[in-house]
Amino acid sequence: EVQLVESGGGLVQPGGSLRLSCAASGFAFSSSWMSWVRQAPGKGLEWVANIKHDGSEKHYVDSVKGRFTISRDNAKNSLYLQMNSLRAEDTAVYNCARDLRGYTSGIYYYYMDVWGKGTAVAVSS
Amino acid sequence: DIQMTQSSFSLSASVGDRVTITCRASQSIGNCLNWYQQKPGKAPKLLIYAASSLQSGVPSRFSGSGSGTDFTLTISSLQPEDFATYYCQQSCSTPRTFGQGTKVEIK
Predict the structure, then answer these.
(1) Dist CA B90 CA B1 (whole Å)
(2) pLDDT confidence of residue A64
(3) Is the pLDDT of residue A107 over 90?
């Protein structure tokens, strides 16, 4: 069974740090792009970051650049999100997702077909 | 960044209705458009990718169309399990922006 399971969420003070993990199983993790997506309470979805299968390419939304770092360990089938300098507006449920890639008419497109259930992060004093 | 705008925050419909949700990109994105369904307390579920390709296992009453800047998700006959929030997302470039979501509610 294809599965993603997040862990590492919790309550942290503003300015603090947290490391989220995502354990993958049932598919070729080392061949897959992966993403983190978050959802603040009562709000919509926000894509946070993604990483190429070999870790050689990473992208971030502007609001987390310089504070969050996405990484992976293909030997452990695991994805990570290191979150530093946390702010109240980072409070959200964080989901990891598999990011499949297709190609048509000269353009690569991506879609997230498998999602974890998420881990909740609360930033508050 | 590419901005994604869904035409309505919510809509009311009855079981059996044909429902259309629209999404507009701030610039042309070809067919790099995905649709997701989310129910309360659950992770999003992929419905449509590349604007019109139906994800495996998704009922055929869901369909997607459009290209460039204007896209549509259609539910041909709304079922009780379809009451949820629907999000479009562009995947041509990073950041992979989502629309604000459209909540489909029971009329």
Answers:
(1) 11
(2) 98
(3) no
